[in-house]
């Protein structure tokens, strides 16, 4: 199961790895903007209250 968070204006936050460290990848309209190491860093790009979790389930 993979989850991601989407927000207004085409923003998406997806979990990822940077080396061996877990990061939150910020994308906008499918383009990579940043790898964030904390939720506070994500908040610089998008209002956290506007994010909605999207979960992809296997059939």
Question: What would you say this structure looks like, in words?
Answer:
Strand 1 (2-6) and strand 2 form a beta hairpin. The chain contains one helix and five strands; from the N terminus they run ββββαβ. It is 7% helix and 54% strand. The protein is mainly beta and 59 residues long. It has a five-stranded antiparallel sheet with strand order 4-3-2-1-5. The protein is globular, with a radius of gyration of 11 Å. The mean pLDDT is 92. It has one helix at 39-42, and strands spanning 2-6, 11-18, 21-28, 31-36, 52-56.
Keywords:
59 residues; mainly beta; five-stranded antiparallel sheet; 1 helix; 5 strands; 7% helix
Q: What global shape is seen?
A: globular
Number of discrete helical segments: 1
Which value, in Å, is the CA radius of gyration?
Answer: 11 Å
Poorly predicted runs are none
Structural class: mainly beta
Q: Biggest sheet, in brief? A: 5 strands, antiparallel
Secondary-structure element string: EEEEHE
Helix content: under 10%
Q: Output the strand order for the largest sheet.
A: 4-3-2-1-5
Average pLDDT for all residues: 92
Percent in strands: over 45%
How many angstroms does the end-to-end distance come to? 11 Å
DSSP summary, beta strand count: 5
């Amino acid at each position: 199961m993979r989850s991601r968070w989407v927000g207004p204006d085409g923003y998406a936050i997806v979990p990822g790895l940077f080396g061996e460290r877990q990061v939150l990848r910020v994308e906008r309209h499918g383009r990579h903007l940043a790898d964030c190491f904390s939720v506070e860093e994500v908040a610089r790009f998008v209002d956290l209250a506007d994010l909605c979790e999207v979960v992809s389930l296997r059939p």
